[in-house]
Amino acid sequence: SIGWFSELSNLRLSSNKLMGSIPWTVKRMTSLQILHMADNQLSGPLPNELGDLKVLRELDLSFNNLTGTIPESFGELKNMETLNLLRNRLEGVVPESLCEIFDDSQDRKLFVNDEPTSIQVTCACCDEVVP
Q1: What is the pLDDT of residues 36-66, one digit of tens each?
Q2: pTM
Q3: Long-range contacts of 70-76 (CB under 8 A, 24+ apart)
Q4: Are 90 and 70 in contact (CB under 8 A)?
Q5: Nearest-angstrom CA–CA distance, 91 and 79
Q6: Greater confidence, 106 or 96?
C-alpha cells in the first residue's frame, strides 16, 4: 500500500497509466511535500484524506478522470503552493478556506478550470489558463 511510505517527501507518478481511485491510505504519508499523479487514468472523488497532508506544497492531479467536488479538507493545506486539478470532471465550488490560502500570495497557483466545455468549478481565486 502506498501509505507505508510515511517518510517519503516527493512522489512523482505522472504518466504511468495508473487506474482506479486515489487510495485513502495516502494520509499516512505525513512527510509528503510533492505529489504528482497527473496524466493517468485516476477516477472517483478526491479523497478527504489528502487534506491531512499538512506539509504538502505541490499537488498535481491534472489530466485524470476525477469526479465530484473539491473537499473542504483541502482548506487545511496551508503550505500548498501549487494545486493543479485541470482536465478532470470536477464540479461545485472551491471551498472558501482553500481560496483564502491562494488569495494571500501571488506566488501560489490554483488551477481548476481549463476549457469552457468542461464541467465547471466556481472559483473566485483560481488562476486563468491561457491557451
Answers
A1: 999 999 999 999 999 999 999 999 999 999 9
A2: 0.86
A3: 70/46, 70/94, 70/95, 70/98, 70/112, 70/121, 71/45, 71/46, 71/47, 71/95, 72/48, 72/97, 73/48, 73/49, 74/46, 74/50, 74/98, 75/51, 75/100, 75/101, 76/51, 76/52
A4: yes
A5: 24
A6: 96
